[in-house]
Amino acid sequence: MLLLQTILSGVLIGLVYALVAVGLTLIFGVMDIVNFAHGEFLMLGMYASFWGFALWKLDPLFTLPLTALLLFGVGAALYRVVIRRITDAPMLSQIFTTFGLMILFRGLAQYFWSPDFRSVEGSVLTGKVAFAGLQFGLPQVVAALGAVATSGAVWWFLRSTRLGAALEATAADKEAAALMGIDAQKMFALAWGLGAACAGVAGALLSTTFPIFPEVGASFILFAFVLVALGGFGSVAGAFWAGILVGVVEVVGGFLWDPAYKLVLVLSLYLLVVWLRPQGLMGKA
Amino acid sequence: MLSVERLTKRFGGLAANEDVSFEVGRGEIIGLIGPNGAGKTTVFNSLAGFFPPSSGQIRLDGQPVAGLPPERMAALGVARTFQIVRIFKSMTVLENVMVGAMLHHRAVPAAIGKAREALRFTGLDRRAGDPASQLTVAEQKRLEVTRALACEPRLLLLDETMAGLTQNEVQEAVELVKRIQARGIACVVVEHVMEGIMPIADRMVVLERGRVIANGPPRAIAEDPVVVAAYLGEEYRAPGP
Amino acid sequence: MLQVRDLRVCHGRVPAVHDVSLSLAAGEILAVVGANGAGKSTLLRAIAGLMRAEAGTIELEGRDIGGLPAHQRVPLGLALVPEGRHLFPRLTVQRNLELGAFTRRDRGEVAASLEAALETFPILRERRAQLAGTLSGGEQQMLAIARGLMSKPRLLLLDEPSWGVAPIVVSRIFETIQAVNRTGVAILLVEQNVKRALSVAHRAAVIQTGRVVAEGTGAELLRSDLVRRAYLGM
Amino acid sequence: MSRAAAGRAVGLAALVLAAVFPLVVRSATWQNTVILMLMVAQLGVAWNILGGYAGQVSLGHAVFFGTGAYVSTLLALRFGITPWVGMFAGAGVSAALAVVIGWPCFRLKGHYFAMATIAVGEIVQAVVNGWELLGGAVGLSLPLQNTGFWFMVFNRSKLPYHYIALGLLLFTLGVNWLVTRSHVGYYLRAIKDEPDAARSLGVSLTRYKLYAIALSSGLAAMGGTLYAQKELLIDPGSTLSTSLSIKMSLVAIMGGVGTLAGPVIGAVLLTTIEEASRLGFGGTGRGTDMVVYGLLIVVIAVYQPAGVLGWVKQRFPPKAAPAAPGPGGAR
Amino acid sequence: MSTTFRASLLAALLGAALPATAEDVTIGVIYPLTGAAASTGLELKNAAQLAADLINGTEKSLALPMVGGGGLPGLKGAKLKLVFADHQGNPQVGASEAERLITQEKVAAIQGCYFSSVTQTASQTAERYGVPFLNDSSSSVGLTQRGFKWFFRTTPNDELFVQNAFEFLKDLEKRKGIKVKRIAILAENTEFGTGAARLQEKYAKENGYEVVEKILYPPKGTQLTSEVQKLKAAKPDVVFQSSYLSDAILSMRTYKDLGFLPTALLANDAGFNDSEFLKTMGKDGNYVISREVWALDLAALKPVIGKANDLYKARHGVNFNGNSARAFTGMIALAEAINRAGSTAPEAIQAALKATNLSADQLIMPWGGIQYDENGQNRKGAGIIVQVQDGKYVTVWPAAAGTKDVVWPLPAWEGR
Asked: Is residue A121 within 8 angstroms of chain C, CB to CB?
């Protein structure tokens, strides 16, 4: 029973990882850029939820669409202002641009909102879900469901809409997409917007359970990197399933073995997988 | 010197080469021709060690070499050029050639000497100090040949070295290949430019859809109805495989 | 229809197309032939907007399109079917076709165009749910042409449509090209299969090292020794 | 004056400046800042052999730095072995470790390789954190009382540290220079530019990448020993962190990857930015220093992706060079 | 080494040693002002600054040494000037900053650094330069075992805190017959947590308790589910926990969500006593027991505590906590010594620090006073144990200081 409870807890947190990674892999898939500042989108999503709650008593769950929209804007604007200029730069400069953005965002958050830990207290999302002898925090369950819904929506968007197809087309072949009349610049901005929105939604969903502070993104970004590579760079479905896998391995591994080494376990699993399958679980060969 | 025996290469289920067999004698020039997608480059990559064949054998002076990595093939005396040029863009022309020369001359001064010699041989010496990225396409192709020659190969694999060259440049390339041959180096040449390959090839191997459809001296090949069909299109087509 | 004047295009610093001028009337097929790397593809890519012209003008139906990016030229009635086809291999045949109509506003009629395309290329109807990457070479070329037509172009640029296609399918492709042309679409055709290209073209231009070296009707050029020597090697 | 000659002149001037600096400038703060620059520069140069010349972007180099620090410190604490010996022992252990890590990781390319090195770095940090023999999370400290040349611990005077750091930097640059002047250097650049072409010319990718990582990690380990001797405290958080790994590559990128002088220039630049932003704004506790620091990194990465030397190259293009091998120094 | 260099160094030191009349006395203060601990660093900074301002001011209502003297009377009314530096949680930066403060800012003494690792390197620098270093808030035992001559620590160290916890348990048994057998240890696995966990394990065994589980976890994690499940499976009576703020919050939430309820939770200060902790946890934070060095309810016994707190609250909107109260006290103790030294010469300050003998009523801490032993450790330091009751920290041990009775065992999560 305890083990089942543990596995399901792993799935719940894994789904949130997955959502963060879906956004990251989306950006990578379209642009071949690993966004080191992705955790900061999550942080911004958390602060957006926090301020909505603190200033207007709006529950993070209700402001979630607004948070998504806001972060979409942040992502798209970031593309327009900064990323656009490094599209064709060497991988190293891309890494360092986004690394610099990471520091910048953290600094800005501290500047404007102080380094204090914040939290949303008294959201509608408080309480527990218990069934069949298992119990989970309601916020975790809602966060996991929200993560599934958002990841699903992204997947549906990519698979079934005209714009989604255009995005995939741009990712696959920028020139061929241009020959279809698709504006690659718009698609790139769209990818950054969506990627940021995913992380922002994840932040909003976490805001009722996780402390909010300028460096909060650091906790999630390493997992997001692992998931993106584990699932296969650019594969949304891969990142999603890898998220669940990693969540379960982390929680169950920590339970059965030593929690001090749960990260080691996850990272070793990742190294093993990419060593055997360099393209990741669901990546293009 | 080199014999290719029933070489087969599959990618997934797709056979890019099937039962390809031919021989290259010492100092011979073999033309490898066929339509796009016929599997010429795959043969090439197998010979150079880039793809381990799915089945079949490659022998160099009787020794089985199929499956050896490219660096081993190079050490055994097989050098190649690339269809899409792959020069070292951050280096000068001389440095590019030095990398080749270092296969047998590790010390920098010796490599410089060897590289200069190779550059003189191919007529690129006056551009030795220029960044390789500033060469014209024709010069870049020539640089690749020079670089391969600096490895002191016994067998040189030339992949569309004449594509996109002007008449004059093609003539120069033809001359170069002849002079390479005169040094006793065998060449396998993948080429579309018939006027470039026909006059110099000792034999031609024609590939189509992964198989050898003809193998013989250029004159005979030019008149072979099967080849004409594969090259010139439908109405010349004879009943094929 | 199309007027190209003194076009110059460079790869880095190296000019690949030198001062080429061409014109194409509505409903015409113009073949551009020449050796590999002679600059034919570069020419098409410049007309489609994938490469920037260093000098010269490109006019489509009297409008200067030289400054527009590629994606803005599509809605003006120009489509390029690129060399190597450049399909979206991980999308289905149907999605590929739908993407071809990305710029069209007449949503209702797109369905009709799709139906028409599947009519013209029956093999694609069978394969419409399959991923484009799994099609054979000939099928892929059919799909590429059909996708190009989905934007309802008045000018279709075809780059090496017989590339990597089994000989038995080549005739079908050229028949299709002629059929498309009969519906009133002008075609600028770049092709290595010179004989084939010249036999379907109304007019042809021979290009070598980035320059037009000969022009005439297909039949004239086919009889020309120069063309035979340079491209058939015999 | 040709650019190469100008480069040599600037290099020589920089060397003289570095040599006399602590004799002229007596402020310990400034001396300390310059020592930090020299140390960071040394790490950047070491990183550059793998990341810049061979093009294998490692974001886990702190592992090697930490290995050097831990090996020499353990030898000193347990067996009383002088760090002068420990430094080389650390380099050896680190190089061996690098080969063990590099062997599987070199199967991976581009982003996959970079991510894998981050993972390795995090794993090593977590393992050392729980390793009692290595002091666990508390780390190891060297006694302040054993001072002098033999112990490589010096009290108030900054001069010994300065000249050790400078010497180590020159040694590292020297190794780097020798590499660029040998076939290994040519091969590494070839591997970075066109791996397939390099293979076709007889270059074994694995072997030369392993050479590169062994050298690079060994030199980084020597920097680790110096760090341990200077700070006298090593713990996983400060000697094995990913942010340290990133910093090592950052200096190379700022100055110009794959160049001899690039990481040195980058180190001067980065340390200046870091110190200036912290001194200027750090005391406020409002994160202003991070804003400034982050913004500058972004601006440099966006507007000068080839680093300072890339800018120099653009600004002063080489004259049609004589047909001689390019000097490693200024290019 | 060149003689000119030595001469110049000497000159620099002498320069610092001979202040002109009533010139400012500069004190360097190093805390983490950016990074994960920045919020704590800011509190520390604010408290130190408040102490300095009170000393420089003339408001005498607060009956604490030096306060209201309009500066340091022993130095002709020289004002205290604090120069703050940010160590970012990085030991190397801490050492560099200490050096800068000493050589550039010519500080008479340094106070800091909260993180034990940074305190270690920064105090090394001070030791090298022979500048007094007052450590107000780092509790790692090893810091005062290095044989340093310039290092003084006002706060008690971890060993004392852990001893306190077990004395508290024994007290409970004696007074109330509460028998604790099974102890679980949960600690974050950096230097702070592992050090505390090691001591807790040692003392638990010495005192005859059974350690049923010892869990170290990485503090930057995203979840603590596996840790809590392990705890649940171990069924401990008491959990000893050492956590920073974000993991303290996360662990409490996970306890509640997974329905884990030990008899008592004995926290090791840090995150559990951060000002943000109760703000965030609300009612769920009630009944946590923690070791402390300060509590507001001590004001009932010692009114000066309340008055000092009022001043701090008026300025910064929050109450003192253990960290800020220690930073405040550290500054008072340092200033008192400098004043007695009558000079900013390092040796004089060092001698004055060694001779420090502050009594209990001269402090806002529940300590017996401040008097350093030969290692620089304040031998009169003491810890207290507080429990959160009705959203406030109340002192429950020692009985002499205890203002309220301890609530034991933990009431169920629901219905609080």
From this structure: no
> Rounded to whole angstroms, how far apart are CA atoms A219 and E330?
34
Report CB contact under 8 Å: B233, C208. Answer: no
Cβ-in-10-Å burial (0-12, 13-18, 19+) of C142 comes to: buried
B99 with D199: Cβ contact below 8 A: no
- Looking at chain B from residue 191 to 210, which residues have their Cβ under 8 Å from any Cβ of chain C? 192-195, 197-198, 209
Which residues of chain A neighbour E215 with C-beta distances below 8 Å?
258-260
Q: Quick one: tokens of E105?
A: 């800012």
Which helix or strand (DSSP H or E) is residue B168 part of? helix B167-182
C79-90 pLDDT per residue, tens: 999 988 899 988
For chain B, give the number of residues: 241
Mean pLDDT of D120-129: 94
pLDDT by residue (tens digit) across B122-168? 999 999 999 998 887 788 889 999 999 999 999 999 988 876 666 67
> Furthest-apart CA pair in chain E: how many Å?
75
- Band (pLDDT 50/70/90 cuts) for residue D1 is low
Given a contact cutoff of 8 angstroms between Cβ atoms, the answer to whether E38 and A115 are in contact is: yes
CB < 8 Å to B99, chain D: 186-187, 190, 198, 201, 203
- Ordered by where they begin, the domains of chain C are 2-230 (3.40.50.300)
Q: What backbone torsions phi and psi does residue E15 show, to the nearest 5 degrees?
A: -55, -40
- pLDDT of B106 over the 50 cut: yes
Q: What pTM was computed for the model?
A: 0.88
Q: Do A178 and C75 touch (CB under 8 A)?
A: no
| Cα separation, C61 vs C49, whole angstroms | 16
Q: Show which of residues 156-215 on chain A sit within 8 Å of chain D, judged by CB atoms.
A: 214
DSSP state, residue C28: -
Token pair for residue E130?
């022979």
Distance CA B117, CA A1 (A): 78
Tell me the one-letter amino acid at C212. Answer: V
- Domains of chain A in start order, with CATH, are 2-113+136-276 (1.10.3470)
Tell me if residue E289 falls in helix, strand or coil. strand
Is the pLDDT confidence value at E210 over 90? yes
Domain boundaries defined on chain B:
1-77+153-241, 85-150
D145 contact partners, CB below 8 Å, separation of at least 6: E147
Angle between helices A236-256 and A138-160 (to 10 degrees): 160
Structural fold of domain B1-77+153-241: Rossmann fold (3.40.50)
Do C and D touch, 3+ Cβ pairs within 8 Å? The answer is: no
What's the pLDDT tens digit per position in A239-275?
Answer: 999 999 999 999 999 999 888 898 899 999 999 988 8
Q: Is residue A69 within 8 Å of residue A204, measured between CB atoms?
A: no
C98: nearest CA partner in chain A:
A162
Chain D touches chain B, with at least 3 Cβ pairs below 8 Å, answer yes
Residue E67 CA to residue E56 CA, distance in Å, equals: 7
pLDDT of residue B36: 66
CATH code matching the domain that covers E159-292+384-397, chosen among 3.40.50.2300, 3.90.770.10, 3.30.70.100, 3.40.50.170: 3.40.50.2300
DSSP-based three-state secondary structure for D313: helix
Taking CA–CA distances from E145, the nearest residue in chain D reads D143
Asked if residues E337 and E352 have their Cβ atoms less than 8 Å apart, the reply is yes
* Helices A217-231 and A91-113, axial angle in degrees (round to 10): 150
Distance CA C99, CA D122 (A): 44
Q: What is the mean pLDDT of chain C?
A: 86
D119 backbone dihedrals φ, ψ, rounded to 5°? -60, -45
Instruction: Provide, rounded to the nearest whole percent, the portion of chain A with pLDDT above 70.
Output: 99
Query: Could you say which of E227, E233, E249 has the minimum Cβ distance to residue A259?
Result: E227
Choose among E161, E110, E358, E148: nearest CA to E273: E161
